[in-house]
Design a protein that fits this description.
Blueprint: E1 6-13, H1 19-29, E2 40-45, E3 52-59, H2 62-70, H3 72-80, E4 92-94
Antiparallel strand pairs: 1-3, 1-4, 2-3
Length: 108
């Protein structure tokens, strides 16, 4: 997959009673994607399964993602937080079809 970027999706599943700790760790590591060329990142936590998380990031190139995933920040993340998530983390790539957003002012 050399060259072509897209949206990388990295699912995480917390080990028992460690969901909040994994949430904090993912919130800390996710912004580092921007240092490797990502244009956006998101961390979401499922409401119906509070142990299930999804980290996504948009990279214009696959190489930028590889440098992030194998770089010192993420390597240290995996070492220091290994007990917080189930092993066997497998990322996948997706192509965005459509996206949108809106801002709504709160009424007083």
């Amino acid at each position: 997959m050399a060259g072509k970027g897209g949206t990388v999706q990295i699912p995480w599943y917390a080990t028992g009673l460690r969901g909040d700790a994994l949430q904090a760790a993912l919130a800390k590591i996710a912004p580092s994607a921007l240092n490797y060329g990502a244009t956006t990142y998101t961390v979401t936590r499922q409401r119906d399964d509070r142990y299930k998380f999804l980290l996504t990031a948009d990279f214009p190139t696959y190489e930028g993602f590889t440098e992030w995933w194998e770089g010192p920040e993420f390597r240290n993340f995996r070492i220091h937080n290994a007990g917080l998530f189930q092993l066997g983390v497998l990322y996948s790539w997706a192509d965005k079809i459509v996206t949108g957003s809106a801002s709504y002012a709160e009424s007083a």
